[in-house]
């Protein structure tokens, strides 16, 4: 019996043993195409010699130095790289060990910002239903996964949730997609009025919704309207790019494609590409300056912030991403979308095929014309995962647990190094899986 505390206590997990390129191998030698990069993590694939060399060199030279006493060359270099590549005025980078830590740091920074500038009455966050921002208590509060939240509801920060921007589910009476986007963005304004805008700290959203909806991009104009509302009421905009960032959608930062800037952005997953646990919270000079001019101390921190070995991995990864791999992700993403549409465009149970870059979602529905979801009780996502694993495809099916209404989807987030024949491999494996399950 395993003594590892597995998340799914009733699942027998296979042991992953070797990673090579876009494939994983279990302890029995069975091969799996890494169709979701774990959870949109492994953007470079496995066994990248440059990242391995960078990590090995750093661990040999200086594995760790506590940030109370030292900064380090890899941390300084990575911050410079990220700031140089980021849109807008994102000017400071706070390194952490993963996505939830990045979101938690963002929420605390936003609250402290308003304390520093003399607005301590601001205490609410507004986020969106059908989102996921992490599992620590603050991050969990801003997420919309009812099932994950319910046990902890009595001990969480109060957060209001508004609608996500999800075109085909939400458009009403022939409304254009632009009008739909404006209408759901205006829910933010209504919620601000309800709470009292002077009590609100920030609005939190994923530019492209990942785990909970399956790679759902916003409609045009939605985030511009959101930015306008945030500016009008002086609240901060926190964009969570933990999953959709680091090139996954075909640009280094997903929100570049929305033509807006953020006050705070969180990244993780693809930043370490699985070679090291690392995340980051980036903020504008203005937000940082308020702390610097005020108490001079961000009231937050962890032992492993700015970890030199993790930052060395981050540098090697970002060098590759900005050296042409992000563009490759965009090209391969278009090919994957075209292949998925060709195979499943008319499938009776596929309601939508969407996404950007190598971040794609297939919506699985009872009926493709009405988009009626499968009954969540059917546990379709679990069945798909099991069938996918036995067919040598590691993919990321979700469903039913988000708000009890929205159904099943499969999220694809393969490594950016994937080749044309691997596009065909993913599609043919998915076909086998859907033939068996749907
Ligand atoms: N934000 C988003 C958008 C995510 O997708 C995730 C992880 N799926 C997180 C935050 C939390 O990241 P982590 O699991 O590294 O704590």
TrEMBL record:
Keywords: Aminotransferase, Pyridoxal phosphate, Transferase. CDD domains: OAT_like. One of its GO terms (cellular component) is cytosol. InterPro entries: Aminotrans_3 (IPR005814), Aminotrans_3_PPA_site (IPR049704), PyrdxlP-dep_Trfase (IPR015424), PyrdxlP-dep_Trfase_major (IPR015421), PyrdxlP-dep_Trfase_small (IPR015422). Its cofactor is pyridoxal 5'-phosphate. The keyword ATP-binding does not apply. Pfam families: Aminotran_3. It comes from the Bacteria. One of its GO terms (molecular function) is pyridoxal phosphate binding. Belongs to the class-III pyridoxal-phosphate-dependent aminotransferase family. This is Adenosylmethionine-8-amino-7-oxononanoate aminotransferase. It comes from Roseobacter cerasinus.
């Amino acid at each position: 019996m395993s003594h590892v505390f597995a998340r799914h206590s009733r699942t027998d997990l296979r042991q992953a043993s070797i990673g090579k390129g876009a494939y994983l191998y279990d302890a029995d030698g069975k091969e799996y195409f890494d169709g979701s990069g774990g959870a949109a993590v492994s953007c470079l694939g496995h066994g990248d010699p440059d990242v391995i060399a960078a990590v090995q060199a750093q661990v040999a030279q200086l594995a760790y130095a506590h940030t109370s006493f030292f900064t380090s060359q890899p941390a300084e270099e990575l911050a410079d790289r990220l700031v140089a590549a980021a849109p807008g005025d994102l000017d400071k980078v706070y390194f952490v060990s993963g996505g939830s830590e990045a979101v938690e740091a963002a929420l605390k920074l936003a609250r402290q910002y308003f304390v520093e500038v003399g607005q301590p009455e601001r205490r609410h966050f507004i986020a969106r239903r059908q989102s996921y921002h992490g599992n620590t208590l603050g991050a969990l509060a801003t997420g919309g996964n009812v099932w994950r939240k319910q046990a902890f509801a009595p001990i969480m920060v109060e957060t209001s949730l508004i609608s996500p921007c999800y075109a085909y589910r939400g458009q009403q009476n022939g409304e254009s997609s632009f009008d739909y986007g404006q209408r759901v963005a205006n829910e933010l304004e209504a919620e601000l009025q309800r709470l009292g805008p002077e009590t609100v700290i920030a609005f939190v959203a994923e530019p492209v919704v990942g785990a909970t909806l399956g790679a759902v991009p916003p409609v045009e104009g939605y985030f511009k309207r959101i930015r306008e509302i945030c500016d009008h009421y002086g609240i901060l905009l926190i964009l969570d790019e933990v999953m959709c960032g680091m090139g996954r959608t075909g640009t280094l930062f997903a929100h570049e494609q929305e033509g807006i800037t953020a006050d705070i952005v969180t990244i993780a997953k693809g930043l370490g590409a699985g070679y090291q646990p690392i995340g980051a919270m980036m903020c504008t000079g203005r937000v940082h300056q308020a702390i610097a001019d005020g108490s001079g101390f961000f009231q937050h921190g962890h032992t492993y912030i700015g970890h030199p070995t993790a930052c060395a991995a981050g540098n090697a990864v970002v060098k590759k991403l900005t050296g042409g791999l992000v563009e490759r992700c965009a090209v391969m993403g278009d090919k994957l979308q075209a292949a998925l549409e060709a195979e499943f465009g008319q499938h009776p149970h596929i309601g939508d095929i969407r996404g950007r870059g190598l971040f794609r979602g297939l919506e699985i529905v009872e009926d493709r014309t009405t988009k009626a979801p499968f009954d969540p009780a059917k546990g379709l996502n679990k069945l798909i995962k099991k069938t996918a694993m036995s067919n040598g495809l590691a993919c990321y099916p979700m469903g039913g647990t988000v708000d009890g209404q929205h159904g099943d989807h499969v999220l694809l987030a393969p490594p950016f190094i994937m080749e044309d024949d691997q596009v065909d491999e993913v599609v043919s494996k998915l076909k086998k899986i859907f033939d068996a399950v749907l």
